Each structure stands twice: as structure tokens, then as C-alpha cells.
Amino acid sequence: MTKCDILIQGCRVLQPDMTISGTCSVAIDKTMICKIGPEAELAQEYRAEELLDGRGKLLMPGLVDGHTHTCQQLLRGRVSDEYPMVWTRFLVPFESNLRPEDSYVSGQLACLEMIKHGTTAFADSGGVYMDRVADAVVESGMRAAIAKSTMDMGNAITGAMKETAKEAVAHTRELYKGYQGAGDGRVDIWFAIRQVMTCSQDLIAMVRDAAEELHTGIHAHLCEHKDEVSFCLQNYKLRPAQFLESMGVLGPNLLTAHNVMLSDEDIALMAERGVKVIHCPRANLANHGFPKAPQILQAGLQVGLGCDGAAPSNLDLFDEMKVLRYGMIAYWGLPSFNPVVMTCATVLKMASWGGACALGKGDILGTVEEGKKADVILLNIDQPHIQPTQNLLNTIVEAANGHDVTDSIIDGRLVMKNREVLTLDEEKICFEAQKHMEEIIKRAY
User: How many other CB atoms sit within 10 Å of the CB of residue 118?
Assistant: First the structure.
């Protein structure tokens, strides 16, 4: 018999073509999916260190949060029902008053919540003390592309969030030196352009050159709101995407978050350059409007989903799928009588493979296939809100949520079993998070 680390028995599998298999088993060894096949056959072929009962469960790729802010985890509940500008009134004072241990506890809590909601990897656009966030990621077992927030402009930006261009790039280089490849290769360090309104041309050029030198990614907020477009037109006579193109930033290593105010010309340009697009449905619909998601997909761009941090809600990508689907049907589908403008299969693919592509890892993540990394989750489908169903995939998108995730495997390691996170102390983290939140509030407000 062949040895393997984990054997999942009697599950069903979400396949790359978005169909669902019959009952089968899946063998995992040394971080990889090594075989998918009939249950009886794999039981004879493999002797596993860990057996997982997959009966009544669906094995699917781990979800990827393409845009989040782990340092805003302790802002939960503060920004809802508030008038603009929420960013300058709450987020900046809060993040400016974080201390290293705050960022660590916030990162731990974010990882804990993501694991319990079925997210196995994420891209963080940056905050302060991201070395401590990286520590939390390594400890949790998750996979992440982590950036340090970089800003050198803006009167409202204060404290640790605002640096000179040289300082900002130097600090990210230090982070790269200390954490690139950490956690057995699960951590990547990227550069960041917080947004064009708070980053000078010098800083953007330095980020571009440093990312090219180190062969790493760039994470940017782009066309999130109309003020950003207005700023670019007034200062550069170009729209934001055109401005970044003029700076030589648009390319396959650029991940752009939100993308609400893109013009048709922007979309065509970004498709030509291979930019990765992330939508944050709940954040966008609450603050900025409806993105041109169907048009962006039609142009051939790779699109993923992000929760934009826990400040207004939670880190459940199952919720994001529902909101994007219904938002697109309401805004683009109903006026043209097109009920398939955003199908269930499309949004599920965004939340998995689309996010993996955004992290530059679509070749090894985002689908359940032999030879790919074992970043997978098990979903309990034997429940009254899921079964019986005439179309299981549609029901997963329409009815399932993060609480239905029972088990999580990342890089071939079991990090959650039967809803218990094995890598993090949930009770301790929640207790410490409460204390840190109260202390930050006293300093910030």
C-alpha cells in the first residue's frame, strides 16, 4: 500500500468544470492532491496517517479572499450607518493608533474567522506592522499575499500610516526580506499602492520598480469611488487606470480592488494588460455602487472576490457571492431581461479560482485536481437548507454559508476538523481581541 498524509473517504467533489462528481475518495500527500478516484479503490491503494469521513460532504477548493484588511478586524460594527467620510473619520484614526501587538491579535482573529468560513488564502492590501500579521498567518497555517500599506500624500493621513516614498518602499523591502516564503512558502510579500489619491508619482514609480526587481505583486485600490476618478482627471488629465498605465504599472502582477468606476475603455485596457480584478460586493454596494462585473468578465479579465475586511460585516465569501449575484441581476439583468447575467457557477468560480489567479497561483490553486496544491474544504451538504436539491451547485451558492464548512486543509495540512480550528486558540484570541479593541478605541477616539 502507498502511504499518504490524508485520505478523504466517500465525499463528492466540485470539479474544475463546475460540475459535481458522484461519491469518491481523495488522497493527499506532501501538500498535494495525489489521487481522486473510487472509494473502494483508494481504500485498497492508500494507507493514510489521517482519515476524514467525507460522507454527506462536498469537497471543494478553498475560497480565496482577494482583498481584505486584517488590521481592521477590531473595527467591526463601527462603520455601518455612518455618513462619509468613514475612511477619514474612523479608519485612519483607528489604524494610526495600532501597535504591533494589536496588529498581531487582529491578524490572528482574521485568520481564525476566515478558516471557519472556508477561506484558505487571502490578499491583504496592507496596514501597519504587517510583520506581526505575517506571524499570525504563519501560525494559522493559512496562505497569504501580504502588503504593507504605502501612502505619502493626504492631509488626513497621520502617524504610522504616512511615510515618505523612500521610507514606504524601504519598509516593504524589509518585510520582504524577513517574510517572503515564510510558512513553508505560504507567505508572499507584495508592494502596495493604497490608492492614487494618497500615493505620489514618485512612490508609484518606486513601487513599480521594486516589484519588478523582486518579481512580486502590487496590490492597489482602483476606481473605488468617483472622487478618485475626479482627482486623477483634475491632476493628471487621465482616469485612474490610464494614469497607472502611463506609470507603467498595469500588468499581470497588479491586483486591483473594487473596480466600481471603470469605463469601457478602462476595462479593455486592463484586459489587454492582464490585470487581476477583485470585486468586494457588500462594501461596494453599501458605499460606491454597482460594478460592471458582466462586462469585465466578457472582456476576458480574471475576477475574484474580496470581503474588504470585517469592519462593516464579516469575512464570509459565501455572503459575497450571494450579494454580487443578486446585485448584478438587479442592475444589469432585469433591465435587459437576462436572468443569467451572473450565474451561480460564475460567482463560485470567482470565489475560488478567480481569487487564486489574483494571487498569481491559478496554476496550483483554485480547483480540486490531481497534481494541485491541497488547499481544500469540506462542506456539510446533508442539511435541511441544502438537501434535497435539484441542482447542488446552485444551492451551494444560494443557500450555503461559511458555517457549513466542517473541515479545512491548507498546503496539505489539516487546519480545521469538525469546526475546530487546530492551529489557533479560539477562546484565547477572542478574549485578547476584546481587550485590544477597547484599548485602541481609547487611544484613537
Answer: 30
Number of domains in the chain: 2
Give the pLDDT of residue 250. 98
Reading the block at residue 89, the C-alpha cell is 473619520
Euclidean distance between CA atoms 439 and 432, whole angstroms = 11
d(CA 141, CA 326): 33
Report whether 250 contacts 271 (CB < 8 A): no
Name the residue with cell 467591526: 76
Q: Of the candidates 378, 382, 360, which has an alpha carbon nearest to the alpha carbon of residue 415?
A: 378
Both 177 and 48 in one domain: the answer is: no
Same domain, 73 and 57: no
* R_g of the chain, CA atoms, integer Å: 21
- Numbers of helices and strands, H then E, in the chain: 18, 17
Domain presence at residue 432: no
Q: What angle do CA 353, 175, 112 make, to 5 degrees?
A: 50
Q: Parallel, antiparallel, or unpaired for β 2-13 and 24-29?
A: antiparallel
Check residue 158 and give its pLDDT. Answer: 66
CA distance linking residue 358 with residue 256, whole number of Å: 9
Cβ neighbours, 10 Å, residue 389: 14
Identify whether residues 57 and 72 lie together within a single domain.
no
- Does residue 68 share a domain with residue 40? no
Per-residue pLDDT, averaged over 348-362, amounts to: 98
The verdict on 119 and 234 lying in the same domain is: yes
Pair 343, 269 in one domain: yes
What is the C-alpha separation between 384 and 339, in angstroms, rounded?
Answer: 26
Q: Which three cell numbers stand for residue 187?
A: 507567505
User: Where in the sequence is the domain holding 86, given as residue range(s)?
Assistant: 63-358
Q: Is 344 helix (H, G, I), strand (E, B) or coil?
A: helix
Answer whether residue 77 is part of any domain.
yes
Residue predicted with more confidence, 156 or 295: 295
Same domain flag for 212 and 80: yes
Q: What is the mean pLDDT of residues 137-149?
A: 97
3-state secondary structure of 410: strand
For residues 204 and 348, membership in a common domain is answered with yes
Among candidates 215, 213, 205, 280, which has minimal Cα distance to 243? 205
The CATH number of the domain holding residue 150 is 3.20.20.140
Nearest to 432 by CA among 131, 106, 69: 106
CA distance from start to end of the chain: 63
